Structure formats: structure tokens, C-alpha cells
Amino acid sequence: MGDGALDTALSGGADLLIVDRSLAGRLPVTGPTILVDASEQAKTLAGCESVVLEMRAVGIRRGHHVVAVGGGVVQDIATFVTDIYMRGLAWTYVPTTLMAMADSCIGGKSSINVGGVKNLVGGFHPPSRVIVDPAFLPTLPPAAVAAGLAEAVKICFCRGQDSFETYLEHYASFEQEPERLLFHVLDAKKWFIEIDEHDRAERLLLNFGHTFGHALEAATGHRLSHGLGVAVGILCALRHPAAEQNPGTAALEQHCRLLLSAAPDLDEVLDSVDEPRYEQAFRGDKKHSPSAFRLILPVAGEGVRQVETPSDDAGWAAVLTATRESLGSLRRAAA
Ligand SMILES: NC(=O)c1ccc[n+]([C@@H]2O[C@H](COP(=O)([O-])OP(=O)(O)OC[C@H]3O[C@@H](n4cnc5c(N)ncnc54)[C@H](O)[C@@H]3O)[C@@H](O)[C@H]2O)c1
């Protein structure tokens, strides 16, 4: 973490840098560098093709090492292109958003948008090294910090009550000592990756808040960011009739509300939720079975579990009621 590791990675051993264009001025960049826009349009097959062609143009060959610096978009592009370029290059990842530092930097997934469908294509190609440098944090807008913390608290709550309580302790000193929270969250996430790298059992629990959150993102035309969508999605999951209460649920709800208060236009964004689009996106979640929703919900005791609820009219009404109540309570809090 930090401690000059970034300078070392940039100055030695990198045959190519792939860097978020908006950060290039902040880095001592020398040598072959590809600048990418951190946009959803850039993490497409066409965007990756142009990166691959630039890699070829600057002479990248087998055995070369790539260093990528940026948030989740740069990570997705770098994971994908280093996976497929000449059947695979080793790479180092330097996450620059809190979302990427606390969550996506480990796990090794790439997610590329195709034909307007978000994250339709991807694979697994973990970096050989991750350098987390909190020096990137101060320039992030408060809503982006809140979005990263939403994923962070989700991971710890899913890991169990002790992990969740430790997160809350580290949250209290996050501004002074972000490393403590980051180490703790990454350690919790590591447990899920090591036990279930390919998302077949335990790692699926990390989808807590995501089925609701992804559908809300889509239903607001992506005005709601992913991380804040997860925070709202957690509130919806907590209100679902199949959710059980446990010693952490009340504190989790309170914490998600606190994080969401950092989003200046949340009220207006939630007003833009289009319910037919919400239903379509919720039902279209790839994790559901043909006849049941597969939801990650809190379980009595601690943490979360996967629950199957029928996806018939009654099952949908339960989802919609939980969602409407959650959005209503957030609007009342903002008023
Ligand atoms: N592969 C995975 O495991 C995984 C997991 C979660 C999310 N994602 C993807 O990541 C993307 C979202 O990533 P993200 O939230 O990390 O952000 P991002 O990469 O989309 O960047 C968001 C904005 O922050 C800017 N930025 C980056 N670092 C900054 C800094 N230090 N200071 C100021 N501004 C900075 C970027 O230029 C951009 O404008 C989505 O496309 C999502 O699908 C991937």
C-alpha cells in the first residue's frame, strides 16, 4: 500500500502504462503510455480493440509487463486487454477510486459493455500485483467516496458481524487513516475470493444489494451510480419480507442512509425511477432462475444468505413494495 510503491512501479518494470486520461498530469509518466477515457463507451469491444492496436503500435510483446492506473473502467479495460493480447500479459493494477481500492482491485474480473448492454462480456485475469495508494483519495468527490464505502460496508456485513463492527470502527477514523479500513475490507473480500474464486457459492453473497441496485441504476438511466445504487439496494433488501433481522441490520441501515446523504441530488435521481424499466431490469437479472428470484438477504444470526422467492405476481409485489417504501423513506429524510 502506498509508501513509494507507485513510483517504483511507474519508473521500473513497466513496458506500458494504461492510464485514466484525467489522471495523467498527476503521474510521473515516462515511456509508452495509453490514455483512456474513464467512460462506459471506452469499456466496449471497440474501445478495447483500439487499446490493443495501440499496444501493437508501441511494440508490446509476450513477456512485457503492463501497469494500469485508474478506477474500475481502466481496470476492466486493462484486465480484458492483458488477458487477450498475445494470449496474456502480466500486469500491475493501481486503483485510484475508493470503489476500486476497496472492492474491485481484487477478484480479477473484467466486464465489458457490448451492444449497449453493460458488463455483458468478460473473464478472469487477475493482476500479479495491486498497489493501493490512498494519496489518490482526496480528489474524489464525496459521492464517489460514499459509493466506494457502500461496497466496502457491504463486503464486511456479508463476511459477518465481527467484520461489520470492525468496519464501523475503522470508518470513524477513515479520513485520518484510510489504510486501516482499506486493509480490513480487502482482507474480508480476500476470504470470498479464495474460497470461491469463480462466483459459484460464497462469492455470490457479495451480490447483496445488487439485484435491487442494478435495476435502480437502469431505471434511472444510470443517473444513480453503481455504489450508491448498492446502498439503496441494501435498504430495499432489508425491507423485503423474506429478510431476517440480525444484530447488524439496524446499524447497516443507518450507515447506508449516512452514506447516501453525501449524494447532493439523490432525491431528484430517485424521483426519476421508471417502474416498468425497474421491473424489466430486476426480472432480467442473470442470477434468477426461470421461476424464482434469487435474492441475497440478511439472515438471523449474522450476515446474509441466498433466498429463492417466486417471481410470480405476488413475488414481484413484495419486491416493489420494499422498493417503494425504501425510496419513500429516503425522500422523506431528504425533505
Ligand atoms: N471488474 C470489476 O470487478 C468491477 C467491479 C465493480 C465495478 N466495475 C466497473 O467499474 C466502473 C466504475 O468504476 P469506478 O467507480 O472505480 O470509477 P471510474 O473508473 O468509472 O471513474 C469515475 C470517475 O472518477 C475519475 N477518477 C478516477 N480516479 C480519480 C481520482 N483519484 N480523483 C478524482 N477523480 C478520479 C475518473 O476519471 C472518472 O471521471 C464501472 O464501469 C463498473 O462496471 C468493475
Question: Topology, please?
Answer:
Blueprint: H1 5-11, E1 16-20, E2 33-36, H2 45-57, E3 65-70, H3 72-84, E4 90-95, H4 98-104, E5 112-114, E6 117-121, E7 129-130, H5 142-159, H6 161-172, H7 178-195, H8 210-219, H9 226-239, H10 249-260, H11 266-271, H12 275-283, E8 292-298, E9 304-310, H13 313-334
Parallel strand pairs: 1-2, 1-3, 3-4, 4-7
Antiparallel strand pairs: 5-6, 8-9
The structure holds nicotinamide-adenine-dinucleotide.
The site of nicotinamide-adenine-dinucleotide (NAD) has 27 residues, from α3 and α4.
Number of H/I helices: 13
Estimated share of beta-strand residues: 5-15%
Mean pLDDT across the residues is 94
Oligomer: single chain
N-to-C CA distance: 41 Å
Ligands in the structure?
A: nicotinamide-adenine-dinucleotide
Record field, number of beta strands: 9
Strand order in the sheet with the most strands:
2-1-3-4-7
Q: Mind telling me the C-alpha Rg? A: 20 Å
H/E series: HEEHEHEHEEEHHHHHHHHEEH
What does this structure look like?
With 335 residues, this protein is an alpha/beta fold. The chain has 2 domains: 5-138, Rossmann fold (3-Layer(aba) Sandwich); 141-334, Dehydroquinate synthase-like - alpha domain (Dehydroquinate synthase-like, alpha domain). The protein has helices spanning 5-11, 45-57, 72-84, 98-104, 142-159, 161-172, 178-195, 210-219, 226-239, 249-260, 266-271, 275-283, 313-334, and strands at residues 16-20, 33-36, 65-70, 90-95, 112-114, 117-121, 129-130, 292-298, 304-310. Strands 2-1-3-4-7 form a 5-stranded parallel β-sheet, sandwiched between helices. Strand 5 (112-114) and strand 6 (117-121) form a beta hairpin. Helix 5 packs antiparallel against helix 6, helix 8 (210-219) crosses helix 9 (226-239) and helix 9 (226-239) crosses helix 13 (313-334). The mean pLDDT is 94. Bound molecules: nicotinamide-adenine-dinucleotide (NAD). Nicotinamide-adenine-dinucleotide binds next to helix 3 and helix 4.
